[in-house]
Automatic annotation (TrEMBL):
Residues 72-98 are annotated as: Disordered. Keywords: Coiled coil. The keyword Plastid does not apply. This is IS66 family transposase. It holds the Pfam family DDE_Tnp_IS66. Signal peptide: none annotated. The keyword Coiled coil applies. Residues 175-359 form the Transposase IS66 central domain. It comes from Corallococcus praedator. Residues 9-66 form a coiled coil. Transmembrane segments: none annotated.
Amino acid sequence: MRIEHVTDLETAKQMAALLEAEHARLHQRLELLVQENARLKGEDAQARLQLELTQLAEQLALMQQRLFGASSEKRKPAVEATPPASARKQRGHGPRAQPQLPVQEVVLPLDEADKVCGLCGGALKECAGQTEDSQEVSVVERHFVLKHYRRQKYRCPCGCAPVTAPAPPRLIEGGRYSVDFAVHVALRKYGFHLPLARQERMFQREGLVVDSQTLWDQLNALAHHLQPSYEALPAVVFSSPLIHADETHWYMLKKGPGKKWYAWTVACADAVYHRILPSRSGATAKLVLGDYAGVVMVDGYAAYQTVTKPGADGPASCSLVSCWAHVRRKFVEAERVAPVCAEVLSLIGQLYAIEADLLHAALAAIETPGTVTLPSSSD
């Protein structure tokens, strides 16, 4: 049974009461069954009962942790490491560096009426090159324009047919909206989760009168235009020697049976391929992976193991590797009943530290081209 985190206090209390009642009932029933089983087999009832009760207590502790415990799995490192200055995150709400913003210089002179000395009444003279500087983040409001194209016509005195300058390419033949506009609408909808109805109201506030159906028409045309690129993605992804595979639920708009589908994702270093499919079964995993023969990193979901094991009707030639985050989660859950897991978690933390060092070195190489010293294997 999957337990989601509960934020409503009253609901949490009710669930806790039900959990305690179920625990007591199972405890009593288990004790009777174990004693009866041991009597029939002639075994030590007390030893078997204690073992069963220990397992039940571990399961109960895990369920309570999932219900009421913190969702974060972060741990305090044994030794506090000092990250490089470039990797430190700024704390608080002070001014933040804005390296990507264009800088606009604004010079603020005195009004002519104020260029008078307050002591002698003489004229003030400008101190060349001397200013008192400050910064301010501002915004230039977006605006829409209606481009009126005038295609020039040409003719020859010989009487040949006139020639007209070509029109710019359109996403929809004879349409009124540019490709830039369609991309802008798509980015706001899919990148920033702004529904078309909300965009319609925002655009009207900025002077553009348009309805949500027209916006949808632009997205539909853009999707048809990008379909060949989407169909070319699998060849790019599955040519990589290492890919990542994952899936998550995807709710459809229609109601009734079959409302819940799944978004399957396969990714390599420079490309991502998504498929929306109605199942999360091993057969679907086989459909997604096809005849891939490389290394697949997964989260431990059984469907991948089933479809790739020897003798299975699937891409058995590929190899599975597990995500360390999911492996680590099992040790975090087991640590409360098996303290020895802390040592394993410490070793996994060292792996994460090596990855962080390599990432910082790679970022430094990008920012400052040249020779970069990577951490040695003895560090």
